[in-house]
Specification:
Layout lengths: L12 H16 L2 E8 L3 H17 L3 E5 L3 H11 L5 E10 L23
Antiparallel strand pairs: 1-3, 2-3
């Protein structure tokens, strides 16, 4: 049989290769930000990721988070040339979503303010 299964995923080798080609296409048309922090401070990086993602959506852009673990993480850190006391939190992709883009609806000013009621 010519199937190579990725452990625990149930995918064939062809599925894995197709997914990799899709990722390559997605990166081609997007801006990319590598979020890095000093070692052990990744929670600060995730706070920055949240704010950047929310800001992108507010501007009508799309965002996507890619995280790396174990050996992949070490390889990405090496490619980026990070100093030994830094680590990658994740990579963010930003771009214009495919298809029709609907600007986000804005709330009227102060509609979130409530006094003595919900």
């Amino acid at each position: 049989m010519n199937r190579k299964i990725t452990p625990g995923s149930g995918e064939t080798q062809k599925d894995v290769e197709e997914r990799a080609l899709n990722q390559k296409r997605w990166f081609k048309n997007s801006s990319v930000v590598a979020v890095c922090t000093t070692s052990g401070q990744s929670v600060n990086g995730w706070l920055a990721v949240e704010n950047m993602s929310l800001s992108a959506v507010a501007e009508g852009l799309g965002s996507n988070i890619i995280s790396y673990w174990d050996q992949e993480k070490k390889e990405v850190e090496k490619v980026l040339g990070l100093p030994a006391d830094y680590e990658i939190t994740c990579v963010l992709k930003f771009g214009v979503p495919a298809g029709e883009v609907t600007p986000p609806k804005r709330r009227p000013e102060f509609n979130w303010l409530h006094k003595n009621k919900f």
